[in-house]
Write a structure and sequence with these properties.
Blueprint: H1 6-23, H2 28-33, H3 43-51, H4 74-77, H5 85-95, E1 98-102, H6 107-118, E2 121-122, E3 126-129, H7 136-147, E4 154-157, E5 160-163, H8 165-173, H9 177-183, E6 187-188
Parallel strand pairs: 1-3
Antiparallel strand pairs: 1-4, 2-6, 4-5
The protein binds 2-acetamido-2-deoxy-beta-D-glucopyranose.
């Protein structure tokens, strides 16, 4: 009597399906292009809003009918205009690899800014004083939702949070901070403070 064994058949089907998915000819152009199919996360909308010099985008978040606890379309952050977000995210990663959301009066923010300053980084970290903006409350809620970090400072390296002041101090103490900065394409000329503040 002949019985088909199901295990191997399923395994082969899975492998074929996998290969088909990754190597199908009509998908080649986008995988070769790589960056073209970059999935741009929502945080790049916020980073665009705070790093771009276009003054009109400054007040988009202070509008009344916006719920920062829900996912927002990237277009919202660009005041409704159509942007090439892949291009924009690549630009932000390069021009502003480190963005610090800070509160101007907050001692933890001051400590983090001082530590980063002593690394003498090029391009310099972009400092956003959230309390001096009219959309500060909304930014706080957006950062909480998108990074899981609800306090200030919130240090963003190429779209990902590395945490706040204590996290930064710890990364400095363990000598990982320099690598993080360099991996983000930035150049530290200093070594940071000798003693952890
Ligand atoms: C968007 O920008 C990327 C990267 O610069 C580029 O490869 C792509 O062709 C652009 N897409 C459109 C629709 O212009």
């Amino acid at each position: 009597m002949y019985r088909v064994r199901k295990g191997p058949v399923i395994a082969v089907a899975l492998v074929v399906g996998f290969l088909f998915f990754y190597f199908s000819p009509w998908d080649v152009s986008s995988s070769v292009m790589g960056t073209q199919s970059r999935k741009v996360e929502e945080i790049y909308g916020l980073l665009h809003l705070v790093t771009s010099d276009v003054p009109e985008t400054e007040h988009v978040l202070s509008g009344p009918q916006l719920d920062p606890t829900q996912k927002l379309d990237l277009q919202v952050y660009a005041a409704g205009s159509e942007l090439n977000w892949t291009k924009q995210a690549n630009h932000i990663d390069k021009a502003h690899p480190i963005v610090v959301f800070s509160k101007s009066y907050c001692p933890y923010s001051k400590r983090a800014k001082a530590l980063l300053k002593s690394y003498d980084i090029t391009p310099p970290p972009k400092i956003i004083e959230v309390d001096l903006r009219d959309d500060g409350n909304v930014i706080k809620q957006l950062l909480t939702r998108m990074t899981g970090h609800s306090t200030f400072p919130n240090i963003i390296v190429q779209g990902k949070t590395i945490g706040g002041s204590d996290n930064l101090m710890a990364l400095h103490a363990s000598k990982e901070l320099r690598t993080i900065i360099e991996n983000a394409g930035a150049k530290p000329r200093g070594d940071g403070p000798e003693v952890v503040l």
